C-alpha cells in the first residue's frame, strides 16, 4: 500500500520536484502540501493539491506517514524534529542542517521516535556520477588516485535566500553537499585532511564558488570545484587512476576511458612546441593504450522514495544513512574552517 506524503515548502524543490514526482510515484500518495506563504498554498490549490493551513494541521493528521521538508536550510531542523516527534518519517532536503550539532539533534529525535529520517541526496542518481562510479567499480583502470568533480555556471548564485548566510546560503551548502556525497560514495575510505578556498566574486556574504580537496588515508584525492562565474566550463569529471584516465566532458556526454596497455613504448617521437622539443608530453603511441566510451548508466530517481518506503517497512536499509549524513556535514564544516584558516585542516570526527 502507498504511504501518505505531505510536502512542507511548495517552492522550487517542494513544488517543482517532490509534489510533482509524488503524482507519478508507485510508493507514495500526495496528501497535500503546506507552505508558510499563502500565495504558494493558493498555487497548490489551483494545481488541484490540498494545502494544509498550518504545520500543526499536517502533524495532527494521522493519515500522514511521511513529511518531506523542502524549505530554506535554516528552517530544516525545527520542522524535521517536530515531524519526527509527531510520529512521522521524514525526508529532509539537502543540506540536511546548518551544522553537525544541529544534525545530531535531528538524529537523536529520529532515534527517540524510531522513525526513518534521511536526506534527499538525489544526485546519487546522476548518470555522470554513476558512470564514474561504475568505472571505478569495474576496476579496469585500477584504483582512482584523484577524481576531479566540477560544476561550472556563469550566472552567479540565485538572488534569493541562497545569497544569505543566515538562511544557509552559498555554494558549499548548495552544490558542495551533493558533490562531496558523490565522491565519498566512490572513495569510501578514511579521510585524512580537508583543504578549501572559496570565491566571493558576485556575492560577498556567502561563497559563490569553492575549490575543495579531500585527502584520504591512502593519499588518494577527491577534488571538487563549484564555480558560478565560469563562462567556459571545465569537464564535469576527470579521473586519474592507477592504470589509466577517464573523462566526462559534460553531464550530457558519455565517459571516455583510456587504459594504459603497455607502459614502455618502442619509440617516442618528440613534438615541437613554440620554444622547443618535448618527448615527455608527446602523445602516446596508439598501440600502447586502449580507448573506449562507457555507455551511460540508467537511473530512476523514483528509487529514492521506493527505498525510503522499504526502509520504513524494515525491508531495506535507508539509502542515505545517518553516518553518511554526518560525514558530509563534517566535511562541509571543515571546508569552512579551512577556508577561514587559509590552510588544510586535519579531518576529525
Ligand atoms: P524555494 O525558495 O524555491 O522554496 C522554499 C519554500 O519554502 C518557499 O515557498 C517558502 O515560502 C517555503 N517556506 C519557507 N519557510 C517555511 C516554513 N517555515 N514552513 C513552510 N514553508 C516554508 O527554495 P527551494 O529551491 O525549493 O529549496 C528548498 C530546499 O530544497 C532547500 O533546502 C534547498 O537546498 C533544497 N533543494 C534541493 C535540491 C536538490 O536537487 N536536492 C534542489 C533545489 C533545492
Task: Explain what the structure shows.
This protein has helices at residues 12-22, 38-46, 55-60, 76-85, 100-113, 127-138, 171-187, 303-312, 322-341; strands at residues 3-8, 28-34, 66-69, 89-92, 117-119, 144-152, 191-199, 209-216, 221-227, 237-241, 244-248, 255-260, 271-273, 276-278, 289-294, 345-346. It folds into two domains: 3-120, NAD(P)-binding Rossmann-like Domain (Rossmann fold), CATH 3.40.50; 124-300 and 330-346, Dihydrodipicolinate Reductase, domain 2, CATH 3.30.360. 31% of the residues lie in helices and 25% in strands. The strands form three sheets. A nine-stranded mixed beta sheet has the order 15-12-11-10-6-9-8-7-16. The chain has 349 residues and is of the alpha/beta class. The two termini are 40 Å apart. Helix 4 packs parallel to helix 5 (100-113), helix 5 (100-113) runs antiparallel to helix 9 (322-341) and helix 7 (171-187) packs across helix 9. Residues 8-14, 34-37, 40, 70-73, 75, 93-94, 120, 122, 160, 174 line the site of nicotinamide-adenine-dinucleotide. Nicotinamide-adenine-dinucleotide binds at residues 8-14, 34-37, 40, 70-73, 75, 93-94, 120, 122, 160, 174.
